[in-house]
Design brief:
Layout: H1 11-14, E1 27-31, H2 32-41, E2 43-46, E3 54-56, E4 58-63, H3 73-79, E5 86-88, H4 92-105, E6 111-116, H5 120-123, H6 126-135, E7 139-145, E8 179-182, H7 189-201, E9 208-214, H8 215-219, E10 221-225, E11 232-233, H9 243-255, E12 259-263, H10 265-269, H11 273-283, E13 287-289, E14 304-307, H12 314-322, E15 325-329, H13 335-338, E16 348-353, H14 356-359, E17 365-368, H15 371-381, H16 389-410, H17 422-431, E18 441-444, H18 449-456, E19 465-467, H19 476-487, E20 493-498, H20 499-504, H21 508-515, E21 520-525, H22 530-538, H23 563-569, E22 573-577, H24 580-592, E23 597-602, H25 627-648
Parallel strand pairs: 2-11, 4-5, 4-6, 6-7, 7-9, 8-9, 12-13, 12-15, 13-14, 15-16, 16-17, 18-19, 18-20, 20-21, 21-23, 22-23
Antiparallel strand pairs: 1-10, 2-3
Helix pairs in contact: 2-3, 4-6, 4-19, 11-15, 12-16, 17-18, 17-24
Domain Thiamine pyrophosphate enzyme TPP-binding: 446-600
Region (Disordered): 1-24, 638-679
Pfam family, one: TPP_enzyme_C
Length: 679
C-alpha cells in the first residue's frame, strides 16, 4: 500500500488507549473493539523480497461507519490508526471487493478487513463474501450487530424475526462465510480470533471470515492476557502430499502418452510457477490455463497453449479433447474450464489441490496437497518418463500457431465506418506498454471481456492477469483495480470494464483519487448488456431487455451516457475517443498522468473473437411457441446426448469443435454446431 504501516513495538501497543504505559502485568484492560484491532495489528508476515524483514499481515481496514460500528470499532481504529490504517470507501460491497483484490494481488499472503454498520452496510457485504468464498480468497468482515442486551430492542436497521430472537441481518452472511462467529462477550475474542486467522491463512480452508460485533459488546472492557497481543509471525498452512496419493498419480502419469496440465489459481497462490515450468519443460507436457491460473506460465513459453475451456484457445481445447491424462493443478474445475464436463473426452483426471473438496472434482484421482509441494514431489519421481515426443511437438506447433493468431487478432486494422471490438481494444492497451513482457496488471470480471482477455491477453508473469471469474461479478472491476493498486503501487493497473458493469459500481473512482491510487480505466461502451444479449439469441430468444435499444423506454428514450464526464465529476481525468488510433494516443496520456484516468470508447455489441471456445451448457426451454427456441432446444438436446456418450465411452471418436462466444454465451462444439453469434 502507499501508506506504510509503522513497526509494532514500544509503548504504543503496550499502553492503555490514553497512551500511558502499563506497568508490567499479566493482563491489559481493553474494550472488545480495542482488543480486536490490537490483535490484528500484531500479526506479521515475512516480506516477499526475501530480505528477512516483516510487514503487517493486514494492510488496513476499509470502513464505512454507521451507528453499529462508529463508537466502538471506530474509536479503536482511530487509536491504532498508525499501526493499522483505516481507509474510507463509498460502497460496502465495493470496499470488500477492493479488500479481496488486495489479497489476490498478494497471492493470499496479505489481506484486509472491512467494517460496516448493522443494517444495509452489513447486507451489502453478502455479494462480496460470496465472491471471496467462490474464489477461495481471504477477507475479514467485521459488521456491527444489534445489542446483545436487547434493552433498546428493536434498534434502527434491525431485522426482526418473530421466530428467532437471536437473528440479525448478519445471519445472511453465514452461507457465504468459511467461518462465522457472533462475539457476545469480549472474552470470546480469545478463541474466535485465532480460529479466524487459521481460516484466512490455511490454503484448504481459505475464504471469507465474518465476526459479527454487537455494538454494546464492542464497547465492553475486559482484562485480556497481555501475551495475546505479542507481535507474531504468521505462517501459512498448506498440506504436504501423502505418498500414497503421489504414487497413484505417478502410476497414472506413467501410463499416459498425451498428458495436459491445467494450471489454476492454486499454482499462483502456492508460488508454484517455477515448479510448473520446470515439470512441463522436463517432461514435455503442454500447459493450459484457467482464468484464475493465467499468468502461471509466461505467454510465450513454448509449452503454454493458452486458455482452456469455453473461453479457451483452439490449441488448448484441441489438446484437452485428445489428452489421455489431465493433471489439474490448483483448479476447482468449474464448468467454464471443463466445457460443462464435455471437454475432457478421453482423459483420466488427476486433481492436485490443497482443498480436498476441489481435488475430487470431475471424478478425479485426488492429490490433496499444496501445488508447489505436489509438483516438486511429482518431478522428483518422474525421472524416466516423458510425454510422447509427437504429442509434445504437436502441442508446440499448436501453441506457436495460436500465438501468431493472437498477434493478428490484436493488430488487425480497424475497418472504416465500423466500431472496434474487444480484441482491438486489448491490442491497443498492450501496445501502449513499453515493455515486451508487460508488467501491467489487467483487472476485469464480467461480460464479454473476460473471454476475450482469457484468450488474448499476454501475461508475462504471475499476477499480471487479475480477472475475477469464479463469481463473474459485475461491479468488481473498478473496486478490484483499487485493491490491486493498493497491493502493487509500483505497477500500472489497467481496469477494462464494460458500460454495464461501470454503471453498476463506479464509486471507488473517487476513493482511488482520494487515496492517490492511480488507475487506468478503459470503458468499452456497447450500450447495454451485449454479452447476455448474444446468449439470449443463441438460446433462440429475441433481443429483449439487454441492449438499450431493446428495452422499455419512456418518451425521452435511452440515455446517451457520457462516461468521461461522469469520471471527471468523481475527480478523475477522462476523455472519450472515437477510434483505436485515438485510444492509443489517449493511453499514453493516461500512463503519464498522476491520477486515475478514464478512457471510454464505443464498441461493437455483436462481434467477438471466433477462434477457440467450447460448448457451455445453458438450459433452453423445452416448450416454446418460437421456432428459434425449438431449434435451439434441438441443438441443446444433441449436445447433452453427445456428452452422455462421452461419459460412457472413454475411447469415443473426437468431436469437431467450433467457436463459442464469451462469458454467458452458449458456445457449441460438435459436427453440427452453429456459431451462437449468428443465432
Amino acid at each position: 500500500m502507499n501508506q506504510r504501516i509503522a513497526p509494532i513495538s514500544g509503548a504504543s501497543l503496550e499502553g492503555q488507549p490514553n497512551g500511558v504505559p502499563n506497568p508490567p502485568a499479566a493482563t491489559v484492560r481493553l474494550t472488545a473493539a480495542q482488543a480486536l484491532v490490537r490483535f490484528l495489528a500484531a500479526q506479521r508476515v515475512a516480506c516477499e523480497d526475501g530480505s528477512g524483514r516483516t510487514e503487517p499481515l493486514f494492510g488496513g481496514v476499509f470502513a464505512i461507519f454507521g451507528h453499529g460500528n462508529v463508537a466502538g470499532l471506530g474509536e479503536a481504529l482511530y487509536h491504532y490508526r498508525h499501526e493499522l490504517p483505516t481507509l474510507r470507501a463509498h460502497n460496502e460491497q465495493a470496499m470488500a471487493h477492493s479488500a479481496i483484490a488486495y489479497a489476490k494481488a498478494h497471492f493470499r499472503r496479505r489481506m484486509m478487513a472491512v467494517t460496516t454498520s448493522i443494517g444495509p452496510g452489513a447486507t451489502n457485504l453478502v455479494t462480496a463474501a460470496a465472491l471471496a468464498h467462490v474464489n477461495r480468497l481471504p477477507l475479514l468482515l467485521l459488521p456491527g450487530d444489534i445489542f446483545v442486551s436487547r434493552e433498546p430492542d428493536p434498534v434502527l436497521q434491525q431485522i426482526e424475526d418473530p421466530h428467532d430472537g437471536g437473528l440479525s441481518a448478519n445471519d445472511a452472511l453465514k452461507p457465504v462465510s468459511r467461518y462465522f462467529d457472533r462475539i457476545v462477550h469480549p472474552a470470546q475474542l480469545l478463541s474466535a480470533l485465532p480460529r479466524a486467522l487459521r481460516v484466512l491463512t490455511d490454503a484448504a480452508l481459505c475464504g471469507p471470515v465474518t465476526l459479527a460485533l454487537p455494538q454494546d459488546v464492542q464497547a465492553m472492557a475486559w482484562d485480556y492476557p497481555a501475551s495475546f497481543f505479542t507481535p507474531r509471525l504468521v505462517s501459512f498452512h498448506a498440506p504436504a502430499p501423502v505418498q500414497s496419493e503421489i504414487d497413484a498419480a505417478l502410476a497414472q502419469l506413467h501410463r499416459a502418452k498425451r498428458p495436459l496440465i491445467v494450471a489454476g489459481g492454486g499454482v499462483l497462490y502456492s508460488r508454484a510457477a517455477p515448479q510448473l515450468q520446470a515439470l512441463a519443460a522436463a517432461r514435455g507436457i503442454p500447459v493450459a490455463e484457467t482464468q484464475a491460473g493465467k499468468g502461471a506460465l509466461a505467454w510465450d513459453d513454448p509449452l503454454n497453449v493458452g486458455a482452456i475451456g469455453v473461453t479457451g484457445s483452439p490449441a488448448a481445447n484441441a489438446l484437452a479433447r485428445d489428452a489421455d491424462c489431465i493433471l489439474a493443478v490448483g483448479t476447482r474445475l468449474q464448468d467454464f474450464t471443463t466445457g460443462s464436463n464435455s471437454l475432457f473426452a478421453h482423459a483420466h483426471v488427476i486433481g492436485v489441490n490443497a482443498n480436498g473438496f476441489d481435488a475430487l472434482k470431475h471424478n478425479g484421482l485426488a492429490v490433496e496437497a499444496d501445488a508447489k509441494l505436489a509438483l516438486a514431489a511429482l518431478s522428483d519421481e518422474l525421472i524416466n518418463w516423458r510425454a510422447d515426443a509427437n504429442w509434445t511437438a504437436h502441442a508446440r506447433r499448436l501453441a506457436d500457431e495460436w500465438r501468431a493468431s493472437v498477434e493478428a487478432l490484436t493488430h488487425a486494422p480497424q475497418e472504416r465506418h465500423s466500431l472496434p471490438y474487444d480484441a482491438d481494444v486489448i491490442g491497443a492497451v498492450q501496445r501502449s506498454s513499453s515493455r515486451s513482457y508487460t508488467e501491467d496488471i489487467v483487472v476485469c470480471a464480467a461480460g464479454t471481456l473476460p473471454a476475450e482477455l482469457h484468450k488474448l491477453w499476454r501475461a508475462g508473469q504471475p499476477g499480471a492477469y487479475h480477472v475475477e471469474y469464479g463469481y463473474s461479478c459485475m461491479g468488481y472491476e473498478i473496486a478490484g483495480g483499487l485493491g490491486a493498486k493498493l497491493a502493487r503501487p509500483d505497477r500500472e493497473v489497467v481496469v477494462m470494464v464494460g458500460d454495464g458493469s461501470y454503471l453498476m459500481m463506479n464509486s471507488e473512482i473517487a476513493t482511488s483519487v482520494m487515496l492517490g491510487a492511480k488507475l487506468i480505466i478503459v470503458v468499452l461502451d456497447n450500450r447495454g448488456y451485449g454479452c447476455i444479449n448474444r446468449l439470449q439469441q443463441a438460446c433462440g430468444g429475441a433481443p429483449f431487455n439487454n441492449l438499450f435499444e431493446d428495452c422499455a423506454q419512456g418518451p425521452l428514450g435511452a440515455p446517451r451516457i457520457d462516461f468521461a464526464s461522469h469520471a471527471r465529476s468523481l475527480g478523475a481525468q477522462a476523455e472519450h475517443v472515437a477510434s483505436i488510433t485515438e485510444l492509443e494516443s489517449a493511453l499514453q496520456r493516461a500512463r503519464a498522468a498522476s491520477r486515475t484516468y478514464l478512457i471510454s470508447i464505443d464498441t461493437d455489441p455483436a462481434r467477438t473473437t471466433e477462434d477457440g471456445g467450447w460448448w457451455w451448457e445453458v438450459a433452453v426451454p423445452e416448450v416454446s411457441t418460437r421456432a428459434t427456441v425449438r431449434e435451439a432446444r434441438e441443438r441443446y438436446d444433441a449436445h447433452l446426448a453427445q456428452r452422455g456418450r462421452r461419459g460412457r465411452r472413454a475411447d469415443a471418436p473426437s468431436a469437431t469443435k467450433s467457436a463459442p462466444d464469451a462469458e454467458n454465451e452458449s458456445g457449441n462444439e460438435g459436427d453440427d454446431a452453429a456459431d451462437p453469434t449468428e443465432a
